[in-house]
Design goal:
Blueprint (H helix, E strand, L loop, with lengths): L2 H5 L3 H12 L12 H11 L3 E5 L2 H15 L5 E3 L3 H6 L6 E3 L7 E4 L3 E3 L5 E3 L1 H4 L10 E7 L3 E2 L2 H12 L8 E3 L22 E7 L3
Length: 205
């Protein structure tokens, strides 16, 4: 079932779920939400901006909304991905490989992590730069099939997909509050600055 359908269930479904929960023993293990719902909850709780898209037209509409919100038209945009440059070449943006003087970073990612709402990157997206070197605003393009339960599962996925050519600079990002705010960071996130992150997620399942 798509994320869209799950998020907008009829009230009768909610009522039946409530009745089911009422009948559960308090000693039974807590039921986990599906991966996509868990990711959305954890990502947005940490300040991430989640933009769901059913198709490519909605991807472009969501992207344009972000540009309008921050007046990013006719600005320099950091983007290393030629496919993304072609995908969004009609928005009057100046794509650049130079990190200086860019209004935002446009990128894909490796995986998105359900259990902590993080986004997993590697040198395929970041090259050998640190997150601190990137603009404060990031627009990340991902698909529903990239949602995995844990960082470990994401790392295994990278290894399986890459074979002996495993990318370097593997980093998680999960600080999505305004850039001047601070929060406790885990080991993989140590030293990673807060970023204003928009995740445009395309339904592909």
């Amino acid at each position: 079932m798509s994320i869209f359908k799950k998020l907008f269930k009829k009230s009768s479904d909610s009522e039946s779920t409530q009745k089911k929960d009422d009948g559960r023993s308090k000693y039974m293990p807590e039921e986990k939400l599906p991966l996509d719902e868990r990711f959305i909850h954890n990502f947005t709780t940490q300040g991430g901006r989640f933009l769901y898209s059913l198709d490519e037209n909605e991807v472009h509409a969501n992207f344009e909304d972000v540009l309008v919100e921050h007046d990013f038209f006719e600005t320099n945009v950091l983007c290393h991905d030629s496919n993304l440059r072609n995908r969004f070449n009609g928005f009057n943006l100046k794509f650049s490989d130079v990190h200086d003087d860019c209004s935002f970073f446009l990128t894909t990612c490796e995986y998105i992590i359900a259990d902590n709402g993080a986004i997993l990157f590697s040198s395929n997206q970041l090259k050998e730069k640190k997150p601190a070197d990137f603009p404060d605003t990031m627009i990340v393009l991902a698909t529903a099939s990239q949602i995995v339960e844990s960082i470990g599962e994401g790392l295994r996925g990278i290894k399986h997909r890459s074979g002996s050519n495993i990318p370097t600079n593997i980093t998680t990002l999960k600080n999505f509050e305004e850039p001047n705010k601070q929060e406790k960071k885990d080991l993989m996130n140590y030293g990673v600055p807060n970023k204003r992150v928009y995740l445009i997620l395309l339904e592909d399942l």
